[in-house]
Specification:
This protein is mainly alpha-helical. The protein has eight helices and three strands, in the order H-E-E-E-H-H-H-H-H-H-H. It is globular and about 45 Å long.
Length: about 150
């Protein structure tokens, strides 16, 4: 089993699907399964094209995960999948810059701490913007994958 095997069906459900360009929750032009429209890219507006872009986006997120988390390949498959889904959803820069304590906790193997940093903006009680934006069900799914491994 691969990371893609785990997260592709989850992303297909959680991201939704559209063959038309739409605005995501942050106002970005988006198509297919949460793919941010990039000037210069061409779109065929087919299911096959959507699947190709999803696979590419997962691969790019996995590559970024390896840079952000040097021990990424040693983590359980469930934790790897959770981290790739986070990067797919937020982007690598947002993870690095917006969640430095989370990155630190992951890099030292403090999975409970990492889960708290994602859920709470103060690490304790104030729900983070990410947690509220993606919906608690989706957020808790990712957090549990990290904590439980």
């Amino acid at each position: 089993m691969t990371i893609e095997d785990i997260i592709k069906p989850i992303l297909k459900i959680r991201e939704g699907f559209s063959l038309k360009v739409y605005k995501d929750t942050r106002g970005f032009d988006t198509i297919y399964y949460g793919h941010k429209v990039v000037p210069g890219e061409s779109y065929l507006f087919t299911q096959a094209d959507a699947d190709d872009y999803l696979e590419k986006d997962i691969s790019v997120a996995e590559l970024h995960a390896g840079f952000i988390f040097p021990e990424f390949k040693t983590f359980s498959l469930s934790r790897q999948a959770a981290l790739v889904m986070l990067i797919f959803n937020m982007g690598a820069d947002k993870i690095r810059r917006g969640f430095p304590r989370f990155v630190h906790d992951v890099n030292i193997g403090d999975w409970d701490g990492a889960g708290n940093e994602l859920k709470y903006s103060d690490g304790k009680s104030v729900l983070s913007d990410w947690y509220k934006e993606v919906h608690p069900d989706r957020a808790d799914e990712i957090i549990n994958m990290l904590i439980q491994g």
